[in-house]
Specification:
Helix content is 49%, strand content 13%. Helix 12 (304-313) links the parallel strand 7 (291-296) and strand 8 (317-322). The chain starts with a helix and ends with a helix. Mean pLDDT is 78; it is low at 34-51 and 353-371. An eight-stranded mixed sheet has the order 1-2-4-3-5-6-7-8, with helices on both faces. The protein has helices at residues 2-37, 95-104, 127-141, 153-161, 165-168, 194-199, 206-225, 228-232, 237-245, 247-257, 263-274, 304-313, 333-344, 352-367, 371-380; strands at 54-58, 64-71, 79-83, 107-111, 146-151, 171-177, 291-296, 317-322. With 381 residues, the protein is an alpha/beta fold. It is globular, with a radius of gyration of 24 Å.
Length: 381
């Protein structure tokens, strides 16, 4: 009886195991076919913006860093270094900014963070490693003066990189657009959900991320066929209107971001949750006093109070709130106008050390500080 029972149990176990194997093979085959169907390589339009050609910079460790230059490629002393959001790529640059860089003859440089677009994944979950990559690119291109501009989560990378030794020597302005803040920073800090807690961990298995990547590609493929799907995924009315008007541009840039995998999105989110935010303790050492934070009041992705509180932490930071803008819509005219204003209405290419005397003179007029006190304070500065 025991032998018969053991045989039955063995038969049942082998049957279950067979079905599990068949099921796994079926899932694997489905994912493979889905990946094959949604595989894409974008052909970029180079007619409207003749200088906007994608390039690859090879880093010392052999990885590739993809970037794209808009505007005047020879304006090394008037360069804008753009950090895209999550997900994003070097192509997710608002058309208005492209036209502005062309007409104003600025060099506008957008690059792919590791794991996005043309850039190889680096296996790191830190702000510092991205800044090292950017420093190599800035040195290789011989950029002389830089304004760092970050969109959404890219703003946090921009702020961290402004403190990097190589970049800080060339930084003359910082613009943070709808920035995220670390967990626990304020009531509107970056929050996770159960699904994200499972997927976004420092040791998430690569096959899980690959499956997530395939599903994400499939959604983007569907959105490219039915643009209204993109509109349904955003919250506020301004964002819906922006998504409706720029569906092809947004979906195309996001497709390119997932060209190889979704490891870029994973890297960004894991860095925001588990990364080292200690650079926020060093914001007093930022090399420029020309710092602006821009946020939309109707932002449903990152509440505007996050941007305001972050700006309050940074010396000399000016907070600009746009009442009728959301998270995506702010990439339109408000983004461009604010950046243009930084260049046009203010001498942006003045270092923080060059502005100390001006600040002290203003203070002396208000508080009747003596020249001796000014000299003493200036020496301390």
């Amino acid at each position: 009886n025991l032998l018969k029972m053991g045989g039955r149990i063995s038969f049942l176990l082998s049957l279950v195991l067979s079905w599990v194997i068949v099921g796994l093979l079926g899932i694997g085959s489905s994912l493979y076919l889905l990946e094959y169907r949604t595989k894409f390589i974008l052909k970029e339009e180079e007619v409207t913006f003749p200088h906007s050609v994608s390039r690859i910079h090879h880093l010392p460790d052999g990885r590739r860093l993809g970037f794209k230059i808009y505007g005047n490629p020879t304006a090394l002393d008037k360069a804008v270094l753009y950090f895209h959001g999550t997900p994003g790529s070097r192509l997710l640059v608002p058309p208005s900014l492209r036209y502005w860089s062309e007409s104003a003859q600025f060099l506008f440089l957008a690059f792919d963070r590791p794991g996005y677009g043309l850039s190889d994944y680096d296996g790191q979950l830190s702000f510092t490693s991205v800044c090292e990559d950017v420093a190599h690119l800035v040195t290789a291109l011989k950029l002389e003066r830089i304004v760092l501009v970050g969109m959404s989560t890219g703003a946090d990378f921009a702020l961290a990189c402004a403190l990097h030794d190589t970049i800080s020597k060339k930084a003359y302005g910082i613009m943070l657009v709808s920035p995220a803040v670390p967990p626990g920073f304020n009531d509107d800090s970056f929050a996770t959900n159960p699904a994200m807690d499972v997927l976004i961990r420092p040791n998430t298995p690569r096959f899980v991320l690959r499956a997530f990547s395939i599903v994400e590609r499939a959604l983007l493929h569907t959105a490219s066929q039915k643009p209204e799907i993109l509109e349904e995924t955003v919250g506020s009315k301004p964002d819906k209107a922006f998504a409706r008007a720029n569906a092809d541009f947004i979906v195309g840039a996001l497709k390119d971001a997932q060209r190889n995998s979704s490891l870029g999105s994973y890297r960004d989110l894991a860095t925001l949750i588990y990364g080292d935010w200690s650079f926020l303790n060093e914001v007093d050492d930022l090399p420029t006093a020309n710092i602006v934070t821009l946020h939309g009041e109707l932002d449903r992705s990152i509440n505007w109070t996050a941007g305001m509180d972050l700006c309050e932490l940074i010396p000399h930071c000016t907070f600009e709130l746009r009442e009728d803008e959301g998270h995506l819509s702010i990439m339109g005219s408000s983004f461009t106008w604010q950046l243009a204003a930084m260049f046009d209405s203010y001498d942006i290419f003045r270092r923080k050390t060059e502005m100390v005397e001006y600040d002290l003179i203003e203070e002396s007029e208000d508080d009747n500080i003596s020249m001796e006190e000014i000299a003493e304070t200036f020496e301390e500065a």
